[in-house]
What does this fold into?
Amino acid sequence: MAKKVLIVYAHQSSGSFNAAAKNAAVEVLTAQGCTVDVSDLYAMGFKATATAEDIKGEVKNAENFCYLEESKLAWEQGKLSDDIREEQSKLTEADLIIFQFPMYWFSVPAILKGWIDRVLTNGFAFSQEKRYGQGIFKDKKAMLSFTTGSLESMFSPTGINGDMNVTLWPLQNGILHYCGFQVLAPQIFWAPSSAVAEDRKSMLESWRTRLQGLLEEKPLSFISLDCFDEKAFQLKPEVHEKHASKEFGLTVGIHLNKPLPPHSQMKAGC
It folds into this structure.
């Protein structure tokens, strides 16, 4: 059965390296029989701010507006703005979501953060009962594909920017895994703006090669909800004891005051 892919693309220029990476994904995945849809956020003029304007009609509490609650209610009542509903429809149909962007300030560009804030609404993308490994999108895969301005060495455990695994944790665990996605290892294009043409070409060829088998890749590992108690969501004592003698912590975030597991946010199986 042919897969459906959504690429959420955030770059202003059609001549950028990010555009080339996006185009490569469209070409290779389409050739494999996938249906590929692209949300070009800048071309769409996508609204980045989460406000009451995202809700049609009257809100429940205009005086003390809470986006989390109001957007959930609007989603339930079919009152979210048309642009949000369109993106949610694309996401519902997709088997794989690729976020293609340049890293801004160790995170995503504001327009992409706005897509996350507005499209992944309470109720549609997560709930108190459905999150992490039991999340709403547990049958879907998602991944980050992005460029950096800094060299790979600068994002190492001894580099000035710090370990890239730490930088990725809020994005991959706090957003993608939180919504239940099976998170594929990121595709990182290290500092293409300062690379020579041949190296940039090599980066794109490596991406094309990976795309050939992307749909069959195993996701990154995260800690199961079963490992936490249901009241305070603390790691269960038996799980803690089991890993007490281990050299590394469980994950980047749940590290048990031990050294971080190497490459756990960058390579499957780590």
